[in-house]
Amino acid sequence: MGAFSDLLLIAAEEAEHAEIHAGDGGWWADTAGIMLILPFVAYLLIIFFGKRLKYQGGEFAVGALAINLLWATVLFVMNMTGGVLDQTTFEIARIGSDLVFELGWVVDGLSIMMYFLVNFVGLLVFIYALGYMEGDVRVANFFASFSIFAGAMLVLVGAPNLIQLIVGWEGVGLASYLLIGHYWEDMDNVKAGNKAFMTNKVADVGLILGAILLGLAIGDFDFGHLSEAAVAGNVELNAVALTGGFLLFFGAMGKSAQFPLHIWLPDAMAGPTPVSALMHAATMVTAGIYLMARVFPLFQNMAQDARPWMIAIGAITLFAIGLLALVANDIKKVLAYSTVSQLGYMMTAVAAGGYTAGLFHLFTHAFFKALLFLGAGSVIHAVHSNDMKDMGGLRKYMPTTYWTFIVGSLALAGIFPLAGFWSKDEILATLGHEGYTTVMWIAIAGAFVTAFYMTRAVALTFFGEYKGHGKPHESGKLMARPLIGLAIPSIFVGVLNIPGVDWPGIGNFTEWLGVRVVAMGDYHPESVDFGLAAVGLAAALLGIVVGWMIWGADRKTQEERDSFAVPVLYPLLRQKYYIDHAALGIVGATTGPLARFVDWTNTYIIDGIVNGVGALTRGLGTFVYGILDQRGVDGIFNGLSAVADSAGSGLRKLQTGRIQQYAASFVAGAIVLAVVFVLVS
Amino acid sequence: MTFADWISAPVNWVFLAIGLIVLLSGFRVVTSKNVVHAALFLVGALAGTAGLFLMLSAEFVAWVLVLVYIGAVIVLFLFGIMITRAPTGLDEGLDSDNKALPALLSLGLFVLLAWSSVAAFGGEEVASLGEPTSTETIATSLIGRFVIPFEVVSFVLLAALIGGITIARRDLTPLEEEERASV
Amino acid sequence: MLVNQFLILAAALFSLGVYGLLVRRNIVLILLSVELMLNAVNINLVAFESMIRSADATGQIFTIFIITVAAAEVGIGLAIVLMIFRNRRSADVSDLNLMRW
Fold first, then answer.
1. Min Cα separation C81/chain A (Å)
2. What is the pLDDT of residue C95?
């Protein structure tokens, strides 16, 4: 009968779970794969029937995610109350007799959390997009790509093995490319899409190589087997664990925008705002963190030597990129840099051994970052500009947006008792406990910076005088309701994981995430460390105060200041006005140049390196071209001088655009590789 | 097996004859100064290949090659050549000016491939004019073990059909659209 | 018959195809060269099949797949050539440099 009948006989494999107490989820877990498929069904429906409908097919996208959310919620609740651990796979191909490729879906604490997050945030963002995109160009295309975006992310988080993860990973990359370049009439947007795609591609090489290396070491690509082998101390795996771990981390750096591969994310703001919201909250950028969490046992048991590097990169990301948000004037870019910075927190936490801490921050961050982006979108929709210089005073015109944006900002800044406070505090506690004291202080400084730039964004957007054109108005219900829907969890989800608190009947977030094939062995704080929490909170409050002094105080009339919602601070400001100058002076003298320096580094050094590598490659191409045209010397000099030139349009003439030169280089490269391969083997 | 043994088998003479046709035709395909001639030389190369397939007892595939390639694909090529109005006479602009590097590259590729196949399959023999693979075997295999790839390939063909039409279709000018609407 | 005689012939044909791909400037001729390369691969597959004699004729099946996909490729390729020619009045690849930056 052959492979066809094998395919029809879908054999459900029950995952082994020795120590961890969990049910198998029954029917809901066995049918969870529907979540991975429905968005693609929606895609097809949108393509064929979308244009005839009122919302151009957005109905299908919303419907698919609504059904998905039902599954995700049921599983989430089941996991809360008893734990769910199940895996369904079926074979799609087999190489020889050992190497099996499987697709399927895994249902465990980690994936259930992600299912819930993607579907919940995705649904609200989709509903918001119905209103946001109304009357825009190519709405049906937008919703079709948007469905793929969510679907690919679900394929990614549901992946039982590295192969399916790569499929989802690339699917997310493709969808993001389509969405970032949605307004392709403008060349800049096309370039932003290209940049995102190519930066991610660079990192993807790491992921793919790492997957091959690890998969061949243990004989298959299954995450469960990988974790078990890591815990059991498999010798073959141990030999490649460090290299494989680094390679996977390199892949994660691209998707999760870790320094220095973060450069694509701010540019990715070119897409419609709902795309940014989803990309920054639940899909795409969380993929890297998710991958690190998925292979956490590998780093916990074997590839420990990779962890200091990961922490260093995370720490640079969280602080240095956070500073960039201070000099950005595009409201979406402020939020984008903020996301990069928060991803740095998550990466640092996971690398330091705080599996739960990092993921809990991912969980809470998804709600308030989606909220902030949707709020920003609402503002942009009203004033028709991304630039905060065109905004100001919007709190009078857009009360719902204003209040929800405030909630999101406070949650992001980590103000008690909002969600961000609890998750950030847990990261600090983990860093402190694991002995990374310096990094912990960097993270605390990062909390200050976070509060600082969010205050700035809020002050410039919602306070002072309106500086744009026309009269802004509150967005319609389709856009306002999702804001409220995200604001509520932004306030409350933090209590799910208060250290030492077990909610009756459901336990806490730490327990839910611990439902994996093997025990994670990460650190959980036993109880709240009030001292550390106070320091973190103080840093955030200081950020708000300083931010307010600089951007809030001199921007509005007396009456507006009085009516501001922080009356406690107001007299303080008035009596000690010199603090204003001092703060302005100190912060302006230190932070400003520092931020500008980082911005400069970002613009010239890192982009320069990227451009330089590109230039070098193109230089080599020209060298070959020079030989082709018997103008070798000329080509070398062009190449060298252009490499030295290193930026700008002068380089472009080197990219010949002649397919056959590329093909010749390709053939030459293939021959060289083949010769190497033959010689080695 | 010595060269004398090899050359004394009549089947290898046939191979040499066909191989010579294939190579010469192939050479003319890439060097001919006339586009139509290049396409016609490809017919020679393909016919020779079909002959090789017959020698290798792949009867069905040989006839598929003749039907699909020589019957359809080459005709398509000739259409393409005619529509793009390539001159039927000699044309100087067909090749790029620099042939040295491509020649070197392809020579290197040939040496690499030939050397590695000699190294890998030194004295291995193929069944000399054995029993042809029956069409039944191929049919069973095609809709048995390989049914999924088979379906995928048919989907690819369908997509190519639709894609070809969509790409090659000329959008009507507004004037033409009006005319068509009025009819 | 040695399997190598077929493999070397295929290697020669493939290299000729590569040469044509790199040297030709007319897109139709480039497509012809690609057909030569595909054909070389087909010879390899059939020769290996004849050497191994697998039960379900895998090598020949894949040859059929390649022929099919090549037919699709030619259809699409020529459609693209047609469109390019209509827009630019030329079938010369060196004129197609819109993708450079």
1. 15
2. 66
Structural domain ending residue among the three candidates B90, B118, B134: B90
Pick from A664, A674, A678: CB nearest B102: A664
pLDDT, position A567: 40
The CATH number of the domain holding residue C47 is 1.10.287.3510
pLDDT at C43: 93
Which chain B residue shows the shortest CA-CA distance from C55?
B137
Q: What is the DSSP letter of A2?
A: -
Q: Which domain holds residue A662?
A: 599-680
Q: Give the CA dihedral B81, B86, B90, B92, nearest 10 degrees.
A: -120
More confident residue, B10 or B20: B20
Tokens of A483: 């804001």
Average pLDDT across chain B, whole number: 83
Does the pLDDT value for residue A105 go beyond 80? yes
Which residues of C, range 67-96, sit inside 8 Å of A by Cβ?
A: 93-94, 96
Residue contact C68–B156, C-beta within 8 A: yes
Percent of chain A with pLDDT over 90: 6
Q: Specify the CATH number for the domain of residue B86.
A: 1.20.120.1200
Residue B163 lies inside a defined structural domain of this protein: yes
Decide if C99 is inside a domain: no
A659 touches chain C (CB under 8 A): yes
Domain region containing B176: 143-183
C17: closest CA of chain A, how far (Å): 12
Q: Is C2 on the interface with A (CB under 8 A)?
A: no
One-letter amino acid of A197: F
Domain containing C51 equals 3-90
The reported pLDDT for the residue numbered C42 is 93
Residue in chain A lying closest to C25 (CA) = A660
Examine residue A567 and say whether the peptide bond preceding it is cis (omega within 30 degrees of 0).
Answer: no
Q: Is A316 left (phi over 0), alpha (psi -120 to 50) or beta?
A: alpha
Q: What is the arithmetic mean of pLDDT over A271-278?
A: 85
Supply the pTM of this predicted model. Answer: 0.69
Confirm or reject contact between C8 and chain A (CB < 8 A).
Answer: no
Q: C-alpha distances in angstroms, C90 versus A423, A440, A675, C27, C87?
A: 62, 64, 38, 9, 8
Q: CA of C12, closest CA in chain A: separation in Å?
A: 15
Give a yes or no: residue C95 inside a domain: no
Burial pattern A205-236, b for ≥16 Cβ within 10 A else e, equals ebbbbbbebbbebbebbbbbbbbbbbbeebee
The answer to whether residue C97 sits within a structural domain is no
User: Is the ipTM above a cut-off of 0.90?
Assistant: no
- Residue A622 lies inside a defined structural domain of this protein: yes
Instruction: Note whether A528 and A439 are within 8 A (CB).
Output: no
Report yes or no: A667 at the C interface, CB cutoff 8 Å: yes
Q: What is the pLDDT of residues A387-420, one digit of tens each?
A: 777 777 777 788 888 888 888 998 888 888 888 8
Shared-domain flag, residues B86 and B148: no
Residues of B in contact with A47 (CB under 8 A): none
Give A313-329 pLDDT, tens digit per residue: 888 888 877 777 777 77
Structural domain total, chain B: 2
Q: In whole angstroms, what is the distance from residue A548 CA to residue A579 CA?
A: 12
Among A301, A244, A276, smallest CA distance to A125 is for: A276
- The residue among A242, A211, A223, A229 whose CA lies nearest residue A308 is A242
- Is there a single domain that holds both residue B74 and residue B157? no
Going by C-alpha positions, the residue among A324, A482, A592, C45 that lies closest to residue B64 is C45
Contacts of A179 (CB under 8 A, 6+ apart): A142, A145, A146, A149, A271, A272, A275, A279
Per-window interface: C 43-82 vs B, CB < 8 A? 43, 46-47, 49-51, 53, 56-58, 60-61, 63-65, 67-76, 78-82
The domain tally of chain A equals 1
Specify if B13 maps to a domain: yes
